[in-house]
Amino acid sequence: MRPGDQLRPAVVVVGASRGIGKAIAEVAARDGAPVVLVARSEVALAAAADDIRNAGGEAFTVPLDFLADDAALGLEDFLSANGLFCDVLVNSAGYGLRGGATVLPLDEQLGLVDLNIRALTELTLRLLPGMVARRRGGVINLGSVASFTPGPYMALYYASKGFVRSFSEALHQELRHTGVTVTCVAPGPVSTEFLATSGANRVALFKILPKLEAGYVAEKAWRGFKTGRRLVIPGLSAKLTILLAALVPSAIMLPLIGRLQRRSKDPCPCGSGKSFTSCCGARGNSLGTTTQSR
Ligand SMILES: NC(=O)c1ccc[n+]([C@@H]2O[C@H](COP(=O)([O-])OP(=O)(O)OC[C@H]3O[C@@H](n4cnc5c(N)ncnc54)[C@H](OP(=O)(O)O)[C@@H]3O)[C@@H](O)[C@H]2O)c1
């Protein structure tokens, strides 16, 4: 970029190599914005950028791992080196883990907190002040229906999405009248790799809930953001799930979700190495009595 050149507004999508992020990037590009695609996989990013360019859009790729401390700085460097500023930030990078919190590997659980919460927060807080100064643009954060209830056997994932929704909705309110919008998108299950990589597709809850297409979620997210919405809940089934979570008392909801997200072969949370059903979950055993009798 030469001195005196104007910076151009771009839509920056973190988690754009596949799934919902890729679909949002495609919708934004169709709207005429240059899009900056960010994720770890260079090959998948290049393919996503080709799709956008073949459809007449403009796309840049930035391979970055947002579990690394300097990723946000790397992104800012890329933008300024290419004469761009972040007009709209889409935080779609995230992963889920299914299983007991006392059994799942600690590093994977802390990594989830790092990506789903810390990286999203850092990017949002680094890029929002510029948007407010320019009085335009905003942030789309991917939450989930999981943000509306605790989720036994996906405890950290649900908690991370609770953070995303709370943070995003509060920012939306703080930034009213500034010209900047913060929108939280809260879909139910979407047909992407997330369902397999998180292990969610192996449990009853995700088998019974209908799945949305990423393109549908992306259209709703983009339109909702453009019209200044605080919260976008794509699809009727997600709205009904959230209504159910609000109406059913936790004393009923938590055992129900726990039962629907647990697998009979899951290792027992007490650490015996046996399956839950043959250990603390066996008829007549409470966690306490079984632990003491080992
Ligand atoms: N699918 C669902 O059922 C569902 C429902 C509700 C909410 N959501 C949320 O929607 C968001 C997108 O999910 P999805 O379904 O599109 O998942 P996905 O298909 O697994 O895509 C996740 C994206 O995040 C990127 N990513 C993962 N780790 C990263 C890292 N360390 N640094 C940078 N990028 C990283 C991935 O690319 P690389 O692997 O190339 O890095 C990929 O582009 C997530 O926050 C998820 O929690 C999903």
Overview of this structure, please?
- Helices cover 47% and strands 13% of the residues.
- By secondary structure, the protein is an alpha/beta fold.
- It has 2 domains: 8-263, NAD(P)-binding Rossmann-like Domain (Rossmann fold, 3-Layer(aba) Sandwich); 267-294, no CATH class.
- Strand 5 (138-142), helix 5 and strand 6 form a beta-alpha-beta unit.
- Residues 286-294 have low confidence and may be disordered.
- The structure holds NADP nicotinamide-adenine-dinucleotide phosphate.
- NADP nicotinamide-adenine-dinucleotide phosphate binds at residues 15-21, 39-41, 44, 65-67, 92-96, 115, 142, 144, 187, 189-190, 192-195, 197.
- NADP nicotinamide-adenine-dinucleotide phosphate (NAP) binds next to helix 1 and helix 6.
- Its EC number is 1.-.-.-.
- It comes from Rhizobium meliloti (strain 1021).
- GO terms for molecular function: oxidoreductase activity.
Can you summarize this structure?
It holds the Pfam family adh_short. The chain is 47% helix and 13% strand.
Question: Which secondary structure elements does this structure contain, and how are they paired or packed?
Answer:
Elements: E1 8-14, H1 19-30, E2 35-39, H2 42-54, E3 59-63, H3 71-81, E4 84-91, H4 106-134, E5 138-142, H5 155-174, E6 181-185, H6 194-197, H7 204-208, H8 214-226, E7 231-232, H9 236-247, H10 250-261, H11 287-293
Parallel strand pairs: 1-2, 1-4, 2-3, 4-5, 5-6, 6-7
Helix pairs in contact: 1-8, 4-5
The site of NADP nicotinamide-adenine-dinucleotide phosphate (NAP) has 30 residues, from α1 and α6.
